[in-house]
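Summary of Year 1 activities. Much of the first year was spent building the evaluation harness for sequence design. The harness presents a backbone, in tokenized form, and records the residue chosen at every position. We chose the following record to illustrate the format because it has been used consistently in internal testing since the harness was completed.
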């Protein structure tokens, strides 16, 4: 039986990807930079730092745009309660009742992770929050998951990951973790699932 479940956040805890996609598209259009749908798909599971490195070669221009994007996001709020995955609360409660430990490992900033979990009143379920900002490279680099497992003082065999993006699935698999793929049929995942509540069936993997 697994001892811990590690959750990705965007696309698992909150269904935020379409909102992020629209926000990015609007911002870059203001700066005459075309963000294609194909490129946007590559960003799912990644973070803004990697996005700007892929898009902007000039370091000074990139730095300036990152500052502008931070200001733009502050003026483009997202209601994370409206896009909260309602299945999370009963799932987390059931895991807690079984003594399963829980963590979040997300490419988002720690501030954003804490804010989203607090707004949806589920912060107390998680003993560890890990942000991709902590590492030189976020997902698909496996370091975020390797670090999370180590901080929990567990082994990969003790943990189960819930991810939605292929980038995140790759990160978990490369960290030797079993991963449930929410609404994603990526063959690299251990098991595809359609609902986060299905994690309760697989903690005995």
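For this record, the design step produced the sequence shown next.
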């Amino acid at each position: 039986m697994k001892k811990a479940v590690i959750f990705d956040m965007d696309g698992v805890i909150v269904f935020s990807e379409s909102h992020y996609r629209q926000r990015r598209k609007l911002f870059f259009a203001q700066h005459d930079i075309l963000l294609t749908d194909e490129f946007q798909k590559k960003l799912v599971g990644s973070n803004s730092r990697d996005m700007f490195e892929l898009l902007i070669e000039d370091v000074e221009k990139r730095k300036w745009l990152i500052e502008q994007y931070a200001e733009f996001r502050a003026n483009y709020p997202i209601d994370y309660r409206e896009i909260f995955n309602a299945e999370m609360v009963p799932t987390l409660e059931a895991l807690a009742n079984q003594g399963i430990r829980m963590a979040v490992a997300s490419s988002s900033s720690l501030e954003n992770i804490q804010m989203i979990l607090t707004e949806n009143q589920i912060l107390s379920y998680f003993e560890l929050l890990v942000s991709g900002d902590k590492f030189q490279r976020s997902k698909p680099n496996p370091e975020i998951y390797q670090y999370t497992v180590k901080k929990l003082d567990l082994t990969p065999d003790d943990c189960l990951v819930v991810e939605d993006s292929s980038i995140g699935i790759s990160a978990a698999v490369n960290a030797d973790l079993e991963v449930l793929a929410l609404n994603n049929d990526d063959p690299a995942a251990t098991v595809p699932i359609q609902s986060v509540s299905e994690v309760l069936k697989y903690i005995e993997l």
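The chain has two domains: 4-15+81-202, 17-74. Quantitative recovery figures across the full test set are reported in Table 2.
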